[in-house]
Amino acid sequence: MALAEKAVACTMHNCAPHTTEIEAVHPFGLVPGLRDGDITLWETAAIVQYLDECFDTGVSLRPASISGRARCTQWISAVNSQLYDTMVRRYVLLIIFSKGQGGQADRGTIDKALVNIKQQFCGHGPQCRCQPKQRGAEATSLFACNAHVLTQNQAMPPTAQPRRNEGLEALLRDAHTALDRGDVQSGRATSQKVLKAAEGLANPRYEAKALLCLAHCDRMLSRYRRAHRASQRAAQNFHLLGDISGEVMALSTHAIVSVTLGRSEEAVEAALLSVRLSQFLEHPEHSVLSYNALGVAYFWSHGFEKAEQALQTAVEIAEHAEPQLSTFQPRVNQWWNELLRVFHERYYVGAFTGLDKLRKLREAIITLIASGDAGGAAAGTHITTEAVLQFGLCLEQCWHGRIGQARLDVEVLAQWAQRYGTVTWLGALESWVRAEIAWAQADWAGAMKEAARMIDVAVQVEHEQLACLGHLLSSQMYVAQGRNGQAVDELRRLRLREQLIRADGLETREKVIEWQVDLRLRQQHVNRLEITSRHLERLSLEDSLTGIPNRRSFERYAGELLRGDLAHGLPPCVALIDVDKFKQINDNYSHQVGDEVLRNIAQILRSHIREDDMAARLAGDEFVIVFKNAELAVAQQVCQRISDAVRNFDWSSINAGLASSISIGVAAAEPGDTIETLTHRSDAAMYRHKKLRA
Questions:
Q1: 289-300: string of b/e by CB count within 10 Å (b at 16+)?
Q2: Share of the chain above pLDDT 90, in %
Q3: Which range of residues forms the domain containing residue 554?
Q4: Which CATH number fits the domain that encloses residue 12?
Q5: Contacts of 383 (CB under 8 A, 6+ apart)
Q6: N or C end: fewer C-beta atoms under 10 angstroms in the chain?
Q7: Percent of the chain beyond pLDDT 70?
Q8: What's the number of domains the chain is made of?
Q9: Strands, E, within 322-421: which ranges?
Q10: Partners of 665 in the beta sheet?
């Protein structure tokens, strides 16, 4: 039975106790016995432990938790020392090896054994009529269940269970094969079959494997919400199984899917956890996978330097592994990181400072493909890599002014976009290129139409990052036309989309943190992961640049205050703060100087508020202050002092000629207010302040 549950191929020998054949395996001539190569084992507990730790297939034979395994060992010891005669000889064995009339179980002997079992557990005499103690009932039920299972399996061929698991494994291989050749729909359908069968068999290992394959399929089909749910469930199942390798793979996939949905913090958390867990594994490919996912999470979150560090770490681990591992996936993502960096650079600088690195990275990837080194890609994703590289070539041609060639290349990309018979993110890339081509030809109507289509397709396929890039692209094109008002409106739409993304992902992120913490509290490695959990929590609540709380901290704290009774005491006030002409600081002095300005403003805010108040950075050059209990007039006075402190700060100590100021809008909470309505009034007050000072 144990070998069947583990799906381990074996040869069964039916041996009677105390025969020459069994005595060659078991020193006391009893069953069971196991021989695996040079290893010979006897006694069920030893065999079960060996199979669980030696074979990573089928289901786990022992409980996942420490307490569960300890109780299991406890009952085995109790049976062997105190209960063997009653429970085994006169109960279990009489059910399995029936010796009654007509080959039926001897119910008279079995019923007497049950009475004796009860007496042994309650400690009272033969006339006792009380119910067995809880643990006694548990043990009785345990042995009754096992006896039933053993009896049922008498009619089952010895190879039935292994064949069933082998069938699931074969289906999974078929799913991955279909995915790798680009037949994603077939791969998904096959994965669904495996998942349904595994759920019916209560086989969590194959359930987790099927969920991970489904996540890859849905990711390929640009159905990221489904992929998000599947990868999260897969990570949970792998964790419960104690399968760190599977958990690392699932968390890496979950990180990439989460950041695609715009849930940057969740993505970074999942990737960092994957990185930490991979350090407990011997095989470096898990570290390559984890650092690659971390890089993806960072560059879609505009952390280009951190992304490059993570991706270069993945490359170096792969190159120094024995044997050397594929660098294909991190190299592809280094190219993506550079592409997005260049795109954002154009927004802030107004021109491209250099495209050579982008070209060299793309050519290096093409070389890897030509040499057959594309095996490091996640399941199926290498299929889209050629299309993505075609997209990159189109953009480069366009950015270099080679419009005719770009128009020819984009038609090849369009063919890729139609390959799957369903709308995917490749369609958004196609519209991006066509918008750039139209822009280069001053075809503003065509450019704006394609940018709008890019946003529509991205929203349809749930690729929130590309949708946000579409808004930013539209804003750039409005600026190029001199339509600054429309550019500002587009940026407002971008900000609204980002706010909606954060609100959508907040509940999910909290659930992720809850299950991660809860599960790990039950495991032996909780002490080891507590440091990681604290680090991840700090990352999720603290702004990495300034060290003050971030948007999530603000929303949590303000939400708690607004859910309180505003009728008692003073209501909270919220001040929204914007750094004046911050883009000019970045353009004229550098982003490093801009970062230093933000850090100093953050410290000024922190130094002017009370212990119960909160100063947080929302995003970019936006800050917020929450005054817990303060009259509006008092909050306005504090904000004026803060504004004066920022204006009077010695900015020349950072860079000669540097100056900075801020605009502040303050609003007091009213009954029925939400975070959105309160910040909206603060935002309106801030813009009124700007106009008065203009």
A1: bbbbbbbbbbbb
A2: 33
A3: 548-693
A4: 3.40.30.10
A5: 180, 181, 182, 220
A6: C
A7: 72
A8: 3
A9: none
A10: 576
